[in-house]
Amino acid sequence: MGVFTFAIVWVGREDPMPRARDFDYLWVASRAVWQGDDPYAAVQDAVKQGALEYPFYYPATAPVFLAPFGALPFRLGVSLFTALGMALLAWSVQGWRRWILVSPPAIQAVLYGQWSPWLTAAVGLPWLGLVWAAKPNIGLTLFSGWPSRLALFGGLGLLALSLALLPHWPADWLTAIRDTPHYKAPVQRFGGALLLLAFLRWRRPEARMLGVLALVPHTTGVYEHLPLLLIPQTKKTFAMLVGLSYVATLLAYRGVPYETVAKMLDAQWPYFLVLVYLPALYLVLRAPEGGSAERREEQSSAPG
């Protein structure tokens, strides 16, 4: 899977891109860290030159983690980052769950050069949990469901290293995210408060994950839905949620014209709420406590 993804990205990505994607920001910032420069200033310089559009919204833990990729030429860096993410995701799941690799969230993560495969893979690969510190909003949701000492100490180590290299980064980061209308918690959107019902089943990891996800600001874009595909516990319910994800993605992108990222996400939200988030909530609330055939199937194909 990693080799296939590498080939697809290598052929499909250009340097520079006509319109910057997510990894473009990460590469500029991580290259700055590799060269001993300020990642926030480097991205801001690229914005002034017209190569990028937005400030750098990630904490410095992200470019510090990705500094080895920043040492590479852009095309090689994005291809390796994306291929490794998909390979790790494939490694982290078993059986029918590997169909997650062809789900809309995984496909969009490949197209955008997004973190989602890395973050989701860390559920089944606890030693990879330090990556959650690189995107702490989604990392927190996954840690709430599947906490581990490896993830905790790895994340703290990455945080300490980032502060040692860039002591001023928390202030720079807070300045960058001060005006981010496209980052909203689902509870701030219409109907999103319903997702808090997941806490009724708080003993289950996927319930805690969904409940916390409802509270943390994120884009709610398609690639952010990848962790939701860990919720189904049978082949049938997994296929149902993946199928609904395809329908939601098709309707959202055909029915919503692009103006700004914030306006696009606001207009897409009803599709995602009805076809992805609420079905995921339904699966959380109806999940068995144990002992059934459904529960045995869950254990045989659990992440990791």
What does this structure look like?
- The protein contains 15 helices and no strands.
- 45% of the residues are buried.
- The protein is mostly helical.
- Residues 6-11 and 290-296 have low confidence and may be disordered.
- It has helices at residues 2-12, 22-34, 39-48, 61-65, 67-70, 74-92, 104-112, 116-124, 136-145, 149-165, 169-176, 205-213, 235-255, 261-286, 293-300.
- The chain has one domain.
- Helices cover 59% and strands 0% of the residues.
Mean pLDDT: 89
Counting structural domains, the number is 1
Number of helices in the DSSP assignment: 15
Task: Output the structural class.
Answer: mainly alpha
How many distinct beta strands? 0
How large a portion of the residues is in β-strands, by DSSP E?
under 5%
The global form is globular
Evaluate the radius of gyration: 19 Å
* Major sheet size, sense and barrel closure: none
Termini gap = 17 Å
Order of helix and strand elements from N to C terminus: HHHHHHHHHHHHHHH
Helix content: 55-70%
List low-pLDDT spans. 6-11, 290-296
